[in-house]
Amino acid sequence: xxxxxxxxxxxxxxxxxxxxxxxxxxxxxxxxxxxxxxxxxxxxxxxxxxxxxxxxxxxxxxxxxxxxxxxxxxxxxxxxxxxxxxxxxxxxxxxxxxxxxxxxxxxxxxxxxxxxxxxxxxxxxxxxxxxxxxxxxxxxxxxxxxxxxxxxxxxxxxxxxxxxxxxxxxxxxxxxxxxxxxxxxxxxxxxxxxxxxxxxxxxxxxxxxxxxxxxxxxxxxxxxxxxxxxxxxxxxxxxxxxxxxxxxxxxxxxxxxxxxxxxxxxxxxxxxxxxxxxxxxxxxxxxxxxxxxxxxxxxxxxxxxxxxxxxxxxxxxxxxxxxxxxxxxxxxxxxxxxxxxxxxxxxxxxxxxxxxxxxxxxxxxxxxxxxxxxxxxxxxxxx
Length: 383
Known about the structure:
Among the domains are: 107 residues, no CATH class; 131 residues, Heat Shock Protein 90. By secondary structure, it is α+β, with helices and mostly antiparallel strands. It is rod-shaped. Helix 3 packs antiparallel against helix 4, helix 4 runs parallel beside helix 7 and helix 5 packs parallel to helix 6. Helix content is 58%, strand content 14%. It contains 7 helices and 9 strands; from the N terminus they run H-E-E-H-H-H-E-H-E-E-H-E-E-H-E-E.
């Protein structure tokens, strides 16, 4: 970039113009005041017509008598000489002031823009695959420091978003590949068997149908998440208590058939959200809880509020989530829930269940007056 097109050069010119303008105005004012003062002075008080001039007791002569016109002429010549000298000195001072103002402006603009240069260098080095860099600018709480802090906050959010998207893509690829592999392997086995009967094909057809339905549910979840993230879903005011109780009634019979008891513990929880997406998120949490629950165990679902944040949670008595999921994956179902929570400016929190047994998955969503980060604890503190 050419120097005269840089922000530093433009700031230097502005600083220089200010300093030079103020200095020039001050010198001009001094010149005008001196000029007016000289015009009020007269030499007549120093002219003693006819009086002798004595130096060290020796009379040197007598000051001749000057006419008023001659006195004014001398005064005019004297004033002109003085003003010319002052004008020359003023011009030299203005030239020196101009050079000094440019140097001062260049140095000051460099100091002001140094933090901005640091921000630029960090931004230039950052790539979408590595958003771990931070500016970490230290200094007084001024505009530049706040700009750097805002930039760091933006990088933090982008880092979390990219990490979430990468995990979401990995979970999607893995979970969709599993039913496809099952379908392909079963079809290939029967197709390669010349003695396969109609019942064999019917059995394979049932397997294909079940896995196709599973993939259809996955795709429905992905579509719901995509519509939410692209802003095509309409948020409405709703009470999570109604959603939780409705979902509890829907799952009550299947859970009873599996020998799993369902406990519903709700309180009003008003929020702005997309009903279809939140319904999908709660369904996924319940599906995961059912998978890890054994007959005779208990699943607890609920909703409520805490400090302007609302929540709905599912607790099971299963083995619990591993501290470090394999490959960083948490499963497509939970990935969808996480994406839905983040799209609602909330979060998904996992924690040990009551008394350290099982797992509690909580969706935290911001209420009307919510401020700051979402809570990171489980609302279910006892069984």
